[in-house]
Amino acid sequence: MNKIGFNVLAWSAEISEGLLPILDRLKAIGYDGAEFFVGGTDEKACRLVGDHCKNIGLEVTTVTVLSPEENPISPDAKVREKSIEKLKWVLDRAADLNSQVLCGPFHSAFATFASRAPIEDEYNWSAEVLHEVGDYGKKLGILMTPEALNRFECYLANTMEQLDYLLAKVNHPNVQAMFDTHHANMEEKKLGAAIEFIAPRLGHFHISENDRGTPGSGHVNFDETFEGLKKVGYSGWLTIEGFTRNDPAFANAIGVWRNFSEPWDMAENGYKLIREMGEKYGL
To answer: Which of 141, 181, 247, 273 has the most C-beta neighbours closer than 10 Å?
Structure first.
């Protein structure tokens, strides 16, 4: 069975001691790991939470985004250099958490657009940044998995085809692809075909409903998803990512204006869905 994780962004974007009871309950449900957002996170808090996870037997993955001031595809070389510095800092905090994976749309700045389609220079600039930080992540033992996002949040990589094109340029064994069923539900023609296409580079996987609520409560085709994962022999993380308004500042930043599901409904019923699908398709 693949390892199952839960992203604690359903409660908070802040890494703090306040997450410890939540982590204990996730472990009690049966989760193998927790995923944390690394933003302007305090080093001491990362170590405290990372140590707690280690003590209770909960593994860790992490996610991050970049601002326009740290954009890897900026035409300004100084801004691209800032993206490298920021990603290395994020990787250091991920290491403090004992993270195995750093995922997210860090190939470019989040929700930052140029009012045109991506150009070749932007793919090349992104690839240069990702290759350099891929080396840094490898030294720390952290796999880097850039994520394709929907058209309303990103323009460089919306589909697995675009993400594959970018990663071929990166050409680094420690920089692989991330698949998220929420974004793929909007951008891919067929989930199974998209999974099969990206399979040679697939390093991390988010189980997310079409509305970011409880997996299985919406219209994402999880039978097709798990059948595809079985077909390609995917053996990595299956991590639930759902959002709420529990952390208003974070919710406002990503355009979450209502609660799709309560966090513990996502956690308990989402875990049940993954277990059932895993058993059904032999994952």
So the answer is: 181
